[in-house]
Design brief:
Radius of gyration: 15 Å
Distance between the termini: 28 Å
Order of helices and strands: HHHEEEHEEEEHEE
CATH topology: Cathepsin B, Chain A
CATH architecture: Alpha-Beta Complex
Number of helices: 5
Helix content: 10-25%
Largest sheet: 6 strands, antiparallel
Structural class: alpha+beta
Strand order of the largest sheet: 3-8-4-5-6-7
């Protein structure tokens, strides 16, 4: 399994797309996608190279808004984007995607219990009350994180997951058509 950090000194100061934020500040989604690509596709790229590729291949909208479907030329098809900040996340569907060896990135609250601080992580395993993730905020050498790190007492994983993007290597009978345009504002996950 690949573990990458958005704060790795090799790319932390690179600007995200053509926006004002750096990978170190707001590159959690790009870093998680980079790790997924390295695991699931023959066209894996480190975060700095993926960022450069996204910048020159319409992977961003308006400078630094990530287009989820943009990584299809790199071998990953967006099968489903589930936005669920106010309803429980579909745990069974996410477990099924993981069982089929799909890649799944999920948005969580970086510091749960207060104002939501959106943060993207790569999902490795998932149970009703736990799961393992690769957290792009962690520096090289730090251990992987548990999904329960993003939960307050009384929550389960369906409450902790605010959004999920599921990818597979090729089109299959599972899932619907690939959405044409879907975006996220990476500037929301800035850490200082």
């Amino acid at each position: 399994m690949v573990n990458l950090s958005q704060r790795d000194p090799y790319w932390a100061d690179d600007h995200l797309g053509t926006g004002k934020y750096t990978l170190g500040q707001a590159g959690c989604l790009v870093t998680a996608m980079s790790a997924m690509l390295m695991e699931k596709s023959s066209d894996g790229l480190y975060p700095d190279n993926l960022n450069a590729w996204l910048t020159t291949h319409e992977g961003y909208e308006a400078g630094d808004l990530f287009r989820f479907a943009s990584v299809a030329p790199l071998g990953l098809w967006l099968r489903s984007l589930i936005v669920c900040p106010d309803v429980p996340a579909p745990i069974a569907g996410l477990q099924q995607a993981l069982a089929h060896e799909w890649g799944v990135v999920v948005e969580v609250d970086f510091n749960p219990g207060g104002e939501v601080q959106p943060h993207w992580v790569l999902l490795r395993t998932l149970e009703q009350n736990s799961g393992q993730v690769m957290d792009p905020w962690l520096l090289p050498g730090e251990e992987e994180s548990n999904l329960d790190h993003y939960m307050v007492p009384g929550w389960d994983t369906s409450k902790a997951i605010l959004c999920a993007a599921m990818y597979n290597k090729k089109e299959s009978a599972m899932g619907g058509p690939t959405p044409k345009k879907t975006y996220v504002q990476p500037g929301l996950c800035i850490r200082k």
